[in-house]
Amino acid sequence: MGSWSVRAAVVDAEGRALLGFEVVEGTDPDERTTVALDLIGSLGTRYGATARDSVLVVPDEPSSRIGTDMFAIHDADHVHLASELGAQVTYLQARGLIEECRHIAIVDAGRSGVGVSVVDVVGGEVLGSGHCRLFGGDYCADMVYQYLLDAVGPELESADPAEVLPLEFGSEWAVEMLAAHRSVRVPGPFAGGTARLWRQTLDDLITPGLQRAIRWAREGLVECPVRIDAVALLGGCANLPTVRARFSDALGHRIIAPTAPETASAKGAALLAARTAGGDWPGSAGAGPGPVPGSVGPVPGSAGDARPGRRREPAPAAGPGHATGSHRHRDASRDPQASVAAATPRGGGASFDPRSAPRGRDLRPLR
Q: Are residues 114 and 96 in the same domain?
């Protein structure tokens, strides 16, 4: 998920085979729902599914989740609607990662911040939920951007603006690549055209914000009235080794860290679509369609320290790994009963515990 992309997955009618997966990156926040519906339509055409075979995971405000049934599927005019938490837990169940668990915590470290939710995976109730902006993909990219600007120094004043622009998007790309590589070269106004960035340098840069977010999450989980059996670490930032290691060391619970954690919502939404269409997959018992929930928009969240901000417009087509409207999908045979799902990012958030939430002025627009 995150606040930058729309992801969609297609599974067969039984929810046992992933037929296709696509992602559109660099979407405008005001157009994201439209992009998601268009993506559902294009995938449905390709795999022989209709909009009524689809589930759209809609943005919500974390505090509105508390006490709700995360597995509820709501009937809208053209598609079914479901919660992001329900999609994520459904994916974890289908993977067999939470078979012996009753209560789990979902830590979703995405682009805009860190969300923490405690859920009853048997009854489906959301026991607690919140979101902070102390750490996230934007924070990581901002730290890299400022570090590389400082490395350029006075030379930046005479640099052509066209040379600086790749550095903005290259900072995001570097964070993504350093999840799998020890070093990466970032384009910018440097001698030779690029600068090398090491993973250890990234770890050092992001540690302060990461530690603050971990403390916030740990304080909320300590006050939880139920015993937590495991913590699932999801979101794009969960790909970073230091994020997984530090959360594991600090929280004191068994950590579940699935591969490609940023895709859990989209894949889980596709499984919910298969459930809605009558698919018979493990753990498919759940609530049926219900009335459309009230519209919930993003709300301002807790603000961390002020950070050097990069521009937040979509990346140009030439940006490494962040081309606007780029698609990635697996080829698969056409299935006449395929289920399609698109996952759209959630909005900002309320504190996990309103009494202990980090407060401050929000110095950057929430996307």
A: yes
> 16-26 burial by CB neighbour count: b if 16+ within 10 A, else e?
eebbbbbbbbb
- Residue 351 forms part of a structural domain: no
Same domain flag for 90 and 63: yes
Tell me how far apart the alpha carbons of residues 166 and 188 are, in angstroms, rounded to a whole number.
Answer: 6
* Contact criterion met (CB below 8 Å) for 178 and 199: yes
pLDDT score of 84: 93
- 285-291's contacts with Cβ under 8 Å and 24+ in sequence apart are 286/71, 286/73, 286/124, 287/69, 287/71, 287/72, 287/73, 287/124, 288/73, 289/73, 289/74, 289/75, 289/80, 290/72, 290/73, 290/74, 290/75, 291/74, 291/75
Residue 149 sits in which domain range? Answer: 139-200
Condensed to tens digits (0 to 9), the pLDDT of residues 282-333 reads: 444 443 333 323 222 222 233 333 334 454 433 333 333 332 333 323 333 3
pTM for the model = 0.76
Specify whether 167 is located in the same domain as 304: no
